[in-house]
Specification:
Length: about 90
């Protein structure tokens, strides 16, 4: 039985899903990727127009919040291009 990947898994392994139709995926952040593509039968398909992805979890951006570190981590995962594993989002 083939394992079904979520969109985040597909994004992390984007080099395996890159085709002439998708173009270069390496420069897309996760949010840009989720806005452009959806997963259909474990393949990338164009996303409908005017999509606004909802991303969870949401942490406070207040620097005094006990979860501020998690806020920073998830902002990097959403907006900075990365591949393979999430730790690559904060590698310079």
């Amino acid at each position: 039985m083939q394992q079904k990947n979520c969109l985040l898994d597909v994004y992390s392994l984007q080099h395996q899903y890159q085709t002439a139709k998708t173009g270069n995926l390496a420069n897309l952040s996760f949010l840009a990727f989720a806005t452009k593509f959806r997963l259909v039968n474990n393949k990338l398909a164009p996303q409908s127009k005017n999509i606004v992805p909802r991303v969870f979890p949401i942490y406070s951006s207040n620097p005094k919040s006990p979860n501020f570190g998690l806020y920073c981590k998830y902002q990097l995962l959403r907006y900075k291009p990365w591949t393979i594993k999430e730790e690559n989002a904060w590698v310079v």
